[in-house]
Amino acid sequence: MREITHFIDGASVAGTSGRYGEVFNPNTGEVQARVALASDAEVANAVAAALRAQQTWALVNPQRRARVMFEFKRLIERDVDSLAELLSSEHGKVIADSKGDIQRGLEVIEFACGIPHLLKGEYTEGAGPGIDVYSMRQPLGVCAGITPFNFPGMIPMWMFGIAIATGNTFILKPSEKDPTLPVKLAELMMEAGAPSGVLNVVHGDKTAVDALLDHPDIRAVSFVGSSDIAQYVYSRGTAAGKRVQAMGGAKNHGLILPDADLEQATKDIIGAAYGSAGERCMALPVVVPVGKKTADEVRERVLAEIDTLKVGLSNDPAAQYGPVVSQAHKDKIAGYIGLGVEEGAELVVDGRGFSLQGYEKGFFIGPTLFDHVKPTMRTYQEEIFGPVLQIVRAETFEEAIALPSNHQYGNGVAIFTRNGRAAREFAARVNVGMVGINVPIPVPVAYHSFGGWKRSAFGDANQHGMEGVRFYTKVKTITARWPEGAVEDSAFVIPTMR
Description:
By secondary structure, the protein is an alpha/beta fold.
């Protein structure tokens, strides 16, 4: 059986803990590989390698670091087909979606190619008599990232692209469910010219996570995953004196006003709800039509679109989405569907009985639709993370805007309308971190930043964009004077610029 190893100090390193996790083929349900789970000692070895490398990497000027990013971008583009196939084989998302996963990460790498400009500080000439003040951004040191299974290409590149470009070195702890692509990314970073130890990959479970959070030489940790674990990572990491950005779960809403283009809105919602089998923190699993007429029409249009959906193998170019990542996750989604029925929601389409001929043991689940879902229901309050769309009906705009605003999660939200005033008011008032106006998945472009509110994010810094540059650097401010002439007397009061 294939064994997935760690990548430390520029080389493949076999696991020594004696503990392994299983990596499945979601299409067949079969185990295709095992992945080594790191011990504290193996994490410490990775940190030591990163610490050695950082002392010299930080001295490489920003333009040369940018050239490594340019070459890394070229190599990703060269290998994108094979990388997407590799991603799909472990995750289950269709090839086109895997290419999108990689492309969105690559856009952050493109942003990092401009790091010489992004690291420029501020300068004031003549802030006082013969005194100039200027600032510089310097790297933190060794940083770490803990990433989820649903975007094994994009989210690691969100993190290590900015961290490495700003002069840090990085330790990536990817999900043990689909760990091969992150190792390949580290290999390509070395091929692009990064020195050994600049990007390391250690696989693991809670043991590895705690080792990263506790290690005194790691200065910052970035995390994306469920909210409970995000809160744990934030609390433990900050208690150890680290900078931490921890992105959690979501329950994104799509409001549909009566004046919306219902044909386009429905197609947008179908793609956002069921794409990647709903395994996205920016999926749109809740649709909120305003008014009974709008709700009834949206329901009928959604039903018609569901009838055309094709669920298939991850390498089937005709499939809209493939299997979910594991049997355990499939069972969890099925459990939520059962709970929705128990809670009294109307189960309009039940995806639990879906089976793909010849692949009955695959982790497939069909598109599911609930109507008349109430805000008091657990299935509404909690993140299902599967191909389940819920219709929550609202009578008024005020009732509709209150739903995402009052929800425990505040990651993303969308509104569908032709009314500019309503859209503007919604964007200003809604208590959510990322807003789409006739855009169902409002993931910002790479030169803006990504981050939600409430239990969707812990910490003060967002991912990528200038927020990412600030997170992975510290500011040093210099006040300089070059005196001439007579020696001045000592001053015993705080200096001013008068």
